[in-house]
Amino acid sequence: MIHATAIVHPHARLGERVEVGPYALIGEHVEIGDGCRIGPHTVITGHTRIGSGNRIFQFVSLGEEPQDKKYAGEPTGLEIGDNNTIREFCTLNTGTVQDVGVTRIGNNNWIMAYVHIAHDCQVGDQTVFANNATLAGHVQVGDYAILGGFTGVHQFCRIGAHTMIGIASVITQDVPPFLTVAGNPSAPRGINNEGLRRRGYSPESLAALKRAYKTLYKSGLGLEAAHSVIAVEAEAVRELQPLADFLATPGRGIIR
């Protein structure tokens, strides 16, 4: 299952049924779970831990040093969950001691070619990163978020769950959950109605989210006042709670 031309450090830990393609390089502190497929010319280095069932295509770089001038060789890490697809030429870096020290990717994510996920990013489950989407350092991405091709996200931004971000968008502030956003600079375009419907949200829940969107963006209320209204509504409609929680957490300010 390991090609004769691949170089696997003797201290690396590989699970059962792991396939390693030609000319791949796997470093000393790497752990790879059962059933993973590592494509040709892939480099996996650093303190990198990969779960089971992942498909990693050719020319991917995982666990390389962060692109941060403050990095001084500390043993920071990269953690990848289960059943992710990581396509050609993606680059995922380790964390830094200035943050949690670990870049994390959850489960069942679909990461297309040329995506870059920088140091200390925290990515949830079931996300989609289209080609050339780029996260700067310290970015958080919630479950089921979809980033269009060539999207760029500023460091320390938060992307809420169930968001849809249009192609070539530039994100410089936080994106609350459930929104569709697009543009440079990005602006809100309504809720992600179709994505939420596909994930089983009821008509009543969608109506409540639309009302919350209008409260946040169309009512003329300031952010604090809008959050107060949404927090009260969330007591009766549980689907609004992630939005209320997101707005209660300090960040870079939300897109307006």
Explain how this protein is built.
This protein is α/β, with parallel strands linked by helices. The chain folds into two domains: 7-138, 3 Solenoid (UDP N-Acetylglucosamine Acyltransferase, domain 1), CATH 2.160.10; 196-248, Udp N-acetylglucosamine O-acyltransferase, C-terminal domain (Udp N-acetylglucosamine O-acyltransferase, Domain 2), CATH 1.20.1180. The protein is built from four helices and 27 strands. It is elongated, with a radius of gyration of 20 Å. The termini are far apart. 43% of the residues are buried. The mean pLDDT is 98.
SSE layout and pairing:
Elements: E1 7-8, E2 13-14, E3 19-20, E4 25-26, E5 31-32, E6 37-38, E7 43-44, E8 47-50, E9 55-56, E10 61-64, E11 77-80, E12 85-86, E13 91-93, E14 102-105, E15 110-111, E16 116-117, E17 122-123, E18 128-129, E19 134-135, E20 140-141, E21 146-147, E22 152-153, E23 158-159, E24 164-165, E25 170-171, E26 179-183, E27 186-191, H1 193-198, H2 203-217, H3 223-234, H4 241-248
Parallel strand pairs: 1-4, 2-5, 3-6, 4-7, 5-8, 6-9, 7-10, 8-11, 9-12, 10-13, 11-14, 12-15, 13-16, 14-17, 15-18, 16-19, 17-20, 18-21, 19-22, 20-23, 21-24, 22-25, 24-26
Antiparallel strand pairs: 26-27
- Indicate the mean pLDDT: 98
Number of strands: 27
Number of helices: 4
- Percent of residues in helices: 10-25%
Give the termini separation. Answer: 52 Å
CATH domain fold name of the largest domain: UDP N-Acetylglucosamine Acyltransferase, domain 1
How do the strands line up in the largest sheet? 3-6-9-12-15-18-21-24-26-27
